[in-house]
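Slack export, channel: ligand-projects

TW: morning all. Re-posting the request from yesterday since it got buried. We need the structure predicted with the small molecule present, not the apo form. The ligand is zinc ion; the SMILES is in the block with the sequence. No rush, but it would help planning for next week.
GE: picking it up
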Amino acid sequence: MLSGGRPRVDSSVAGSAAGVSAGSAAGVSAGGAAGGSAGSAAGGAAGATVRFAARVFDGVRELVYPRRCPVCDRPVNPAGALICPECEKLLKRTEGPVCRRCGKPLRSPLSVPMHLCHDCRMHPHVYERGCAVFTYHSVAGSLFRFKYKGRQEYGAYFGRCMAEKLAEFAAGPGSRIYRESFAGMPSDGKSTAGQNMARQNMARQNSAKKISPQIPVRGSARPDFLVPVPVSEDRLRKRGYNQALILAREISRLTGIPVREDVLGRVTDTLPMKNMTPEERQNNLKRAFQSFGNDVSLNSIMLIDDIYTTGATIDACAHALSQKGAERVFFMSLAIGEDAEAGY
Ligand SMILES: [Zn+2]
Ligand SMILES: [Zn+2]
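GE: finished. pasting the full token output, ligand included:
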């Protein structure tokens, strides 16, 4: 039943993505982390040489093609950073209180039953839990250029933000870092504003100095691998790259969690879904995704996408992976809408 598909859908992306997107370069995909740790013994001096060469290459490229800021789309100021510090202030993060299922910011958290957003109360999901970094409206223009205008270079900043969010998410609902980030409820009774600011300042300094520390991801919800939501081959041909794969590769590079782009494929293109009801969307998507992995059982998987709207796409992917035995399916998106329910 599932044997007729093609096991790899994004192979043609590798070249274009690696060519443009920051340091995410060569072969982080499919087992990048495994490769990294396996080579540690032999690494040593050779690894240092490669890292030095990469830094020199980055420096030269920066002079020839200055990186553009994801917000203003001009060369980043100061040069070498991933985003202009002033522009970063314009982005709105989804810091708590958020829906405990999809991570959508809640408009009136105290009156929300079960701490679930309107969508999640109306439509049960196949995936277990998920989260997003930014509210959609604050990042919409940037996302459009990232997706449709060839600005793959934004992936370096966006991927870093997602890797940091993943570290918080994976720690699980019982942990302090999770409660502070997702529920807006500091365990020590103090405001989280200071801590959030400190974290953002640190991220800003890191991007400004262009340090690329590994971001450790630990906890009960640490995924075994990252799976980018695939696009159809038709769209891939037209667009030239899959933005979800660019994000997944960058997250992988920073966290060491491998990307698997061979376990999920988009086998049919779907009709435009803007005017469809949730039920119509679900039916439209149900046959669109197939899992090709025979080794996904007992694994916990993090689906990666650029935007989360109703969750229909993520649910269709989660359904396909669950059918192959995937034990837990989470998602993480760069942007998410706000709760449809008006505050009352
Ligand atoms: Zn800027
Ligand atoms: Zn929700």
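GE: first-pass observations. The radius of gyration is 20 Å. Residues 13-35+49-336 form one domain.
TW: perfect, thank you
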